[in-house]
Amino acid sequence: MSVFAPAAAALLTLLARVDIDGIVVDETRAGEAPLIANQQPRATFANVVVLHLLDPGLELRLDYAPRLFWLAATDTPTTTPLWLNVVDLTASLQTSPRLKITGKANFTQGKTDYQFLSQTIYGAGQAAVPTSIEVLSVTAGEITEVRADPTWTVIVEADAAYRKPESTTTVVVNGQTMTIPYPRQKGVQVVPSAIDRLSNANDLVLSSGVSLQSTSNIFGTMVSSPTMVSPLGGETLTDVGNFEVLTITPEIGWRTRPSPWRQLHLGAGVAYNHVFETPYSVPTRPFSPIANVDWSVNVMTGHEAAYRGTVSAAVDYFVNPVIATAGPRALVAGAIYYAVPDWMVGLEGAFATPIGTRSLAEWRELNMTIPGMAPPVPPDETVASLSLPVRHRVSRNFIAEVGGRWADRGPRLTGLGDGLGFHQRQLWVYLSLTATSVPVKSSLTP
Predict the structure, then answer these.
(1) What is the dihedral of CA 137, 218, 384, 161, to 10 degrees?
(2) Strand pairing category for 42-54 and 67-73
(3) Quick one: which H or E segment has residue 308?
(4) pLDDT at 264
(5) What is the DSSP letter of 8?
(6) Contact 250, 287 (CB under 8 A)
(7) Beta-bridge partner residues of 427
(8) Which listed CATH number (1.10.3470, 2.60.40, 2.40.170, 3.40.50) goes with 4-436?
(9) For residue 222, is pLDDT > 50?
(10) Which of 102, 134, 340, 434 lies 20 to 30 angstroms, CA to CA, from 227?
(11) pLDDT tens, position by position, 236-267
(12) Distances (CA, A) of 114 to 111, 132, 155, 223
């Protein structure tokens, strides 16, 4: 455990006297993982301390969570702790029984470890990850919910994001060292939807999302190791183009509740995409089918025990902000938790991969090898993860959790058959201790 944890816990006592809530999370883990993307996994010991500060008296909730990460790995000298600033702002306004507005924003800046970068900042379904560990990420969103009449509800969701890795990498070409910038990613999305209550157990859901996403410095994205080059070819290693795509996804869905504790959602539609700017010569299809199914259950079994489970599968149209590509993608995710008043055990898993076949030979036909460099290697587009948390409420203000995590990344499935394989394995055993000035509820189910 970090020596900072006791000091942070003492800080919670001080904060309680000035009416500021605080949460301290200290996690120690051991296992193996890459230090940065596209490196081989190595034995690693790490410690993370996160401090959350928030004012319970504000209508706007401001949560500042500085994050410190220590790392010790084989064949690597002890490094300076990584400092990451994370600020979350949430607000909720209900002017009448029919209108509710919820807003959120996040600011993340600093240096982070590979697991947080790949799982939290870029998301569990994002396989390709920049090799930079220093990042700036700003996101904002709002949800407006209007109850038009007793049966119809209109919801408008809007999100915007800006991400920029704040460091560079270098490669050696023909004996010369060249600096490569990393990509800037911008995106905005608006999803209006209308829900018609057909009966007490059935809803009709209509939606049509519109998103515009762009990535610049594409070559810097693709050259994340000396063996990965841009599909553009050429001799330059700096800004070579932008990737910008508009996507419109109309969808119709049906949501049913067979019982008060079970819910099923089915949806289907089509994704239309228009590429405004791209340096690639590979054509994209303007239309792609999309579909999703979600099943959730939340049951009390008596004696204050409960279990909760979710399973989802989807085919969506995914614009990859890291490697600047777009196309259909398959996703599968699931989680199950069982909880009694002071204990919880869970199992979580996820898998994502692009749909479509492309052999290694076909991929290399579209990519040029720069003289002096190894043949190009396809970027990671397939990701799988699994975690097993066991949580115990020691007291009203203290939680302990132990568990294991596994994740791995590799090219699309057809590339795995060419002997490329998964190569970014993360395998962890961890212990997490949480102290909070806010009393913890007896139910520990997420």
Answers:
(1) 30
(2) antiparallel
(3) strand 305-320
(4) 96
(5) H
(6) no
(7) 32, 406
(8) 2.40.170
(9) no
(10) 134
(11) 333 456 788 899 999 999 999 998 889 999 99
(12) 10, 9, 36, 18
